[in-house]
Amino acid sequence: MKSRRGGRARAAAVLVVATIGLSACTTDPGTPTATDGVVEVISAEDRRQVEPFTGQLLDGGRFDSTALAGKVVVYNVWGSWCAPCRTEAPVLKRVSEETQDLGVRFVGINVRDNDAAARAFEENYGIEYPSITTDTSSDAVLAFGPALPPSAVPSTLVVDTQGRLAARIVGPTDYSTLSTIVTETAAETDPGQ
Amino acid sequence: MRTAVILLALLALAAIPGSLFPQRNVASDPAAVIQYTQEHPRLAPWLDRLGMFDVYASPWFAAIYVLLLVSMTGCVLPRSRRLWQSVRSAPPPAPRNLARLEGHRAWETTREPAEIIATAAGHLRRRRFRMVATADEVRAERGYLREVGNLAFHLSLLVLLVGIAAGKLVGFEGRVAVTEGGAFANDLSQYDAFSPSAWTDVDDLEPLSFRLEEFDVSYQTSGSNLGQPSQFAARLAYRAGGGEEQTVTVEPNHPLDVNETKFFLTGNGYAPVVTVRDGRGKAVFTGPVQFLPLDTSYASDGVIKAPDAQPTQLAFEGFFLPTADVGPQGPYSMFPDTLNPQLFLTAYTGDLGFADGVPQSVFTLDKDELTQVRRNGKPFSQALSVGETMQLPGGRGSLTFDGVSRFANFQIAYDPGKEITLAAAVVLLVGLTASLAIRRRRLWLRVRPTEGGGSLVEVAGYSLTRREPPPEEIADLVAALHGPHHSATASKDASA
Amino acid sequence: MILDEQTFAQLSNGLVYSAIAVYALAMLAYAAETAGRMAGARVAVTGTVVADSPSRSRLLGAFGTSLTVLAFLLNLGGVVTRGLAAGRVPWGNMYEFVLVCALAAGAAYLAFLSRRPVRAFGVWIVAIVLLALGLAVTVLYTPAGALVPVLDSYWLVIHVAAAITGGGVFTVGAVATGLFLVRHRQERRGTAQAPRGRYAASLPTTRTLEQVAHTAHIFAFPIWTFAVIAGAIWAENSWGRYWGWDPKETWAFITWVFYAAHLHAQATAGWRGVRASWFALAGYAAFLFNFFGVNLWITGLHSYAGV
């Protein structure tokens, strides 16, 4: 396996697994979907770089993470089949609109889905920010591995202006959590220096 | 030893119920316990209390093997010490009456005792006996490797079990079903099922992704094994650790192995490709849907959900037949390959139940808030061949059967520390064979002067195991000393 | 003439049926020999002279052995042609497995017979082999064909070959152990009057029987151990885990543990001999159950072995 990391991340991971394990047991061995969010905010000095990645977008465009260098980017791993993704969709839409002016960008990473269903979902919830298609999302999913991987659907990953992972929310997020994390990350003037 | 015998017998008996009752953690059929509980509502709770559905993880089973391991350790350590002592000490002196031992031979000779002792000592040394020669006696012993083998066997058994246990603590098992053209990234979010162990670091999975380019199946098309699969092969394009894309074919018994994370091909099924259009004519679902096989002819069932269809959500439920035919009991699949693929579906409208945020299976419908689509008072259903479309009455939407894909089931296992386990297994086998095949035995030779001025030579052996010492060893020694070929009368006379 | 697969398959079936017929004759010869020996045993005990029965019985025994060798060769031919018909090792399903196991038991018996006075086993070994072959052709028969993909592995050759060899030698060990118990009882009671006592008296001595059983067990046990380990490695190769308590694995384990208990009992004062023998018989019973019971009644991952 890869290099080791601190025990803190691992302890959190155990908690996540416990949560996922429970939800997976009660429904079906379908797909691990988290029902409760587990939030990890990483202090500036502990952050690790997210690898650059590219992908195809649902609207037909091309995505390159390096094009967003210098900006705070919120990545959301989602699927139209995932019920908790529906509960958090309005939250993501609202925070993305509110933080647009702070220079924050939102990008969806669609997984285990089909493009027609994903587009119908976005239309239904009025999601305006772009999403990487299921077929090209593998690199995006693995890009966070050196820091902390998504671990469930949905997961929300906040990347700071230096391209490092600043926070991970495994499971559906609520408005105040996401809004606070994103606003604070965007407000960091000189993170990690 | 008696403790070991009793514990071994108990262990064997305790393992039996686990093969007679369905087990929770045995891979073959996860639903078996639930089914058994439904069939035996009175008995099952009692069996459950006794741990009968989880025998190999139950406290009483563990108690037996832990006791066994403790008793084994308690036996092996003192024995190792004793072996060490006996290897360092000289073979014991000959018993007074050699005639009572095995293979006893005696004869008179005129040769000098010293010469006889020297010849015998040389002979036995060449045959790798540990040996001590005195003025009138040769004491020899060999076969220490028997005990070495015995101890090596027991110790390597311990190492083997510890190795397996350690691997289990950090390893994991998971499952995922990937449709042709579909991709998998080795992240927890992409698994269908994932069973971590106590120390699994789920944030540190091997960075690896693959796309299932093609899944090849062939079936026997003639003969008595008609329909039996003859080949499964999944062609994957994979990338490990950000490296270049490589192609690999995964088949049963040929997993993809990336740094001990292994992908095993364990099953497959069909994924009909469909397009669902909603009431507005807009495509709200396009792609393959995995259907779960029900029998060996791959009659499969599944559901298609379109939660974002408007004005009403749409859902379809039904079965897929790769080679459809109609028999007396209705439609069935004649053959596992897609000779005449058909999709039999009924439709639902209403609320799929996604809004409350509770995760649901992709293989079942929550029908609480759904209404079955009806026509002329009967449930609306239709059989579709590839290319055909079913139009829902009242313009609520449509479904087109575009084609058929296959999906492959992968079992994913990370189980490090195999080298230790393998080495232990090899030592275990070698040790066991040595401990059973090698005979530890002693040989003595004694020379006494006779009244007539000659020497009386006596040779005898003694086995420290249950098998007799090889008879030719004594015969060879006698021959080397130019003793008589057949000793029957001589030995009787001499020992009298 | 070019022999095609179909011809080989038919030839194989013919050879197996011939083996059954010859084994049946061998059993008759051995049974007649046993009857003769029992009469001989009565001669020894009562002093009544029954003219020339020992030499006639010896002749019948030799005849039985010749027939057994012939039947064994026919069985071997049946297995080889079966392999040629299927184009692979001939132990890919239950039918073939029983054919080869009968072959292994026959081979183990003949090998012992060449070194030890164990002709008294003949009637029992031949009966077991006959029963196995009969079951194979009636209940278990599967036409020759290719393997299901999951069995298509060189581990099939290794793991199953070891299990079969171990099973064949265990069969000789079990017969020796059973006869040891019969003979031991008779020696203790010192009676040769009742028919069973007479039969027991006609057997080799307990010492010989025990030695043969012991030799068979210590020969077969490491092979069985190897079969279990090879099976675990194959399981890891094919399903990603060494051991999953699948019924087949469980019963292989039970067999192993009973034989391990037997070997320990043989080295324990007070357990040696009769008590230890029961563990060996329990081990053989577990082996038989694994062979037939698990395949026929319990479903598990090994179910594809095909009945």
Relevant terms:
heterotrimer; B: 496 residues; alpha+beta; TATA-Binding Protein; seven-stranded antiparallel β-sheet; 10 helices; 29% helix; disordered C terminus; C: 307 residues; mainly alpha; 9 helices
Description of the structure:
The complex is a heterotrimer of chains A (193), B (496) and C (307). Chain A is an alpha/beta fold and 193 residues long. Chain A is 35% helix and 18% strand. In chain A, helix 2 packs parallel to helix 5 (175-187). Chain A is globular, with a radius of gyration of 16 Å. Chain B folds into three domains: 2-82, no CATH class; 99-143 and 439-495, TATA-Binding Protein, CATH 3.30.310; 172-414, no CATH class. Chain B is built from ten helices and 26 strands. Chain B has helices at 2-15, 17-20, 32-39, 43-49, 59-88, 113-126, 144-170, 418-437, 471-480, 488-495, and strands at 102-109, 130-133, 137-142, 172-179, 183-185, 193-196, 208-219, 229-240, 246-250, 256-258, 261-278, 283-288, 292-293, 300-306, 313-321, 324-327, 330-333, 342-350, 370-372, 374-375, 378-379, 381-385, 389-391, 397-414, 441-449, 455-463. In chain B, strands 4, 6, 10, 11, 12, 23 and 24 form a seven-stranded antiparallel sheet that branches. In chain B, strands 13, 14, 15, 18, 19 and 22 form a six-stranded antiparallel sheet that branches. In chain B, strands 1-26-25-3-2 form a five-stranded antiparallel sheet. In chain B, strand 13 and strand 14 (300-306) form a beta hairpin. In chain C, 76% of the residues lie in helices and 0% in strands. Chain C contains nine helices and no strands. Chain C has helices at residues 5-46, 53-86, 94-113, 122-138, 154-189, 195-201, 206-239, 247-266, 274-297. In chain C, helix 3 (94-113) packs across helix 5 and helix 7 packs antiparallel against helix 8 (247-266). The model of chain C is unreliable at 47-52 and 303-307 (pLDDT under 50). Chains in contact: A-B, B-C. At the B-C interface, helix 1, helix 2, strand 8, strand 11 and strand 24 of B face helix 7, helix 8 and helix 9 of C.
